[in-house]
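> forwarded from #structure-qc
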């Protein structure tokens, strides 16, 4: 079963309304890389892939050099990925290819995976920052008692 990973503000948002994650401290990047190494397989959606490609080299190079399998979900069969990534066309295909993977994504993919019962664990790092309004990681109604939720307070 899959494990979702997100960093959240103290009021439960993964990004501001405009998609900005400027409140997430750089110090959490290494924790994310360590989790990727622990799971050995990472699943991300197309939008997350594109966001990571816009990061500074100081973040993308260590990520892209991780000795893990990186799976990107996109229904666009012509979507072009950098070397080192695997393209799959659906969440079902990703879950079949990597049933014990770490997933780092936004609410669209998170909700789909939760609704379809692919998620067993959720890991969240909760920041002290309060942003007031933004994008939630998933709809709370998609949680059930079978999902193990781990929330860690992060002090930068």
């Amino acid at each position: 079963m899959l494990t979702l990973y997100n960093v959240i503000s103290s009021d439960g948002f993964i990004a501001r309304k405009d998609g900005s994650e400027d409140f997430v401290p750089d110090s959490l990047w290494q924790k994310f890389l360590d989790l990727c190494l622990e799971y050995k397989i990472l699943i991300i959606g197309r939008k997350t892939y594109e966001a990571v490609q816009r990061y500074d080299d100081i973040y993308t190079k260590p990520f892209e050099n991780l000795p893990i399998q990186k799976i990107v979900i996109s229904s666009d069969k012509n979507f072009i990925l950098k070397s080192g990534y695997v393209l799959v066309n659906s969440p079902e295909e990703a879950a079949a290819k990597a049933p014990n993977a770490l997933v780092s994504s936004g609410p669209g993919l998170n909700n789909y995976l939760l609704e379809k019962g692919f998620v067993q664990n959720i890991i969240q790092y909760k920041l002290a920052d309060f942003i007031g309004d933004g994008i939630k990681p998933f709809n709370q109604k998609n949680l059930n008692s079978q999902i193990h939720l781990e929330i860690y307070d992060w002090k930068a």
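QC bot note: The chain has a mean pLDDT of 94. Residues 2-153 form a domain with the Dihydrofolate Reductase, subunit A fold (CATH 3.40.430.10).
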